[in-house]
Amino acid sequence: MKILTFSDIHGSMSAMKIIEEKAKKSDILVCAGDISIFEQDLEKLLKRLDKFGKPVLIIPGNHETERTLEKFCSKFKNLYYIHKKIHKVGDYRFLGYGGGGFSLEDPEFDKVAKKFEKEIEKHHKVILITHAPPHKTKLDQIGKDHHGNKTIRKFIENIEVDLAVGGHLHETSGAQDMIKKTKLINPGPHGKIIEL
Question: DSSP E strands: which ranges in 38-89?
């Protein structure tokens, strides 16, 4: 499966054009949040994504509220709001957790992670989509400091995740790293196709 991952478009039409071209070579799209600037033109942006004709899995960033993004996604046939949910495609399990991006610990993610764990079996390919990057990786490093989430990192260390997609920090756009066997990526607004 070819997965087009992207995040932090923030309403950029030039970024959207690049994503549209890459979508033609992809099976499924994954947006790790912040498609808008504080929900400005959010419905219009989502409508454009829907017209790509491919399934788009999306979570809120810190620029979209859960309620508004979920409401707008429900209007479009190709958009799937997956915050705190699992989207299943064959043996693939897409786990979504959006919002925030500013805290080192996230007790709410811990609760959601317990539900996720019950749904994952050994043969599943697991793709974790969060807005916040995992702690102490190239995805969360700005200068010498790390600004990512420790709770998300702990989940990746404990579960066999194949791919973890995060965004939020524009400074690390395009960064890739590994935690054990898990490939990590901040795909940024121009996106990256990952084949699993």
Answer: 56-58, 79-81, 86-89
